[in-house]
Amino acid sequence: MFHDKEYWENYYNRKTKIDIGFDNPSSFAIFINKQLSNNESKLIELGCGNGRDSIFFSENGKKVLAIDQCKNTTNILNKINTNLTALDADFTRLTSDLDFEPDIIYSRFTLHSINEDGEDRTIKWVAETLKSNGLFCIEARTILDPLCGKGKSEGRNVWYTDHYRRFVVAKEIKDKLTSKGFIIEYFIEDNNLSIYKDDNPVVLRIIARKQ
Q1: Over the stretch 20-71, which tens digit does the pLDDT of each residue have?
Q2: Is the separation of the CB atoms in 104 and 40 below 8 Å?
Q3: Distance (Å, rounded) from C-alpha 50 to C-alpha 43?
Q4: Averaged over 148-173, what is the pLDDT?
Q5: Measuring CA to CA, which residue among 27, 58, 60 is closest to residue 137?
Q6: Are 113 and 2 in contact (CB under 8 A)?
Q7: Which range has the worst mean pLDDT, 32-36, 94-98, 178-182, 205-209?
Q8: pLDDT at res. 17
Q9: Of all helices (H) and strands (E), which one includes residue 119?
C-alpha cells in the first residue's frame, strides 16, 4: 500500500511534459543494463516514477512494462516509443493477468516506499511471475542510510519527512528472497552508489535469480 500517492501526483503535476522521463537514467539502471544478456529481453519496472529508467531500458532493446500509481506520468510514457508500455497501478497488488512474461523485474527506490506487508506481497508476486532463471533487481535505502531516524517516526524503520520512507533491513530482504527460492547473485550495501546532489544514501543492491 502506498502511503503518499498524493505527494507523488502533485510532484509530477509540477513538472512539465518535457521533464517527464527525460532525466539521465539512474546509476543503478546503467549498472543493471551492463549485466543483462540479449536473451533477457522483457522487463517490468515497479514504481517507474518519471520513467527515466524504463525509457533507458526500452532504448537499449528491452520490451518494457513500466508500472506506477501516478496516471499523469504513465499517460505520457505511453507515447514515448513502441518498446515501452506504461500501466497505472499499485505494484504491491498486481495479479497474474498482465499478459507480459518478464525476464527481469526491476525495483529502484520503491521497496522503501511501501510498508512491509506490501513488500511481502511484492516479493511473492515476483517469485510467481518471473520466468525461470529470471532476475529480480533491487535498489533501496537501508537502515544504515543517514536519513533513517530523521523526521516523524511512523513505525518500525519508518520515517516521514516530506514523504514516507521505510528503511529496509538488508539481511531480511536477502532472507525473504532465498526463502522464495531465489539465488542471490550480487549483493552490496554501501554509499557512493546513488548520489544525487547532497544526498549520498546507503543503499542495498541485489540481483537475485529465480531457480
Answers
A1: 555 789 999 999 999 998 888 999 999 998 899 999 999 999 999 999 998 8
A2: yes
A3: 16
A4: 94
A5: 27
A6: yes
A7: 94-98
A8: 46
A9: helix 116-129
DSSP 4: -
pLDDT in tens, 162-174: 889 999 999 999 9
Q: For 57-66, which contacts have Cβ atoms below 8 Å and span 24 or more sequence positions?
A: 57/29, 57/33, 57/106, 58/83, 58/84, 59/83, 60/33, 62/36, 62/104, 65/98, 65/100, 65/102
Of the CATH numbers 3.90.650.10, 3.60.15.10, 3.30.450.20, 3.40.50.150, which one belongs to the domain with range 5-210? 3.40.50.150
Query: Could you report the per-residue pLDDT of 84-107, keeping only the tens digit for each?
Result: 999 999 999 999 889 899 999 999
List, in order, residues 6 or more apart from 206 with CB less than 8 Å away: 136, 137, 138, 139, 173, 174, 177, 184, 186, 187
Annotate 137-180 with three-state secondary structure: EEEEEECCCCCCCCCEECCCCEEECCCEEECECHHHHHHHHHHC
Annotate 47-111 with three-state secondary structure. CCCCCHHHHHHHHCCCEEEEEECCHHHHHHHCCCCCCEEEEECCHHHCCCCCCCCCCEEEEECCH
Q: Between 207 and 98, whose confidence is greater? A: 207
Q: CA-CA distance, 63 to 77, in Å (whole number)?
A: 13
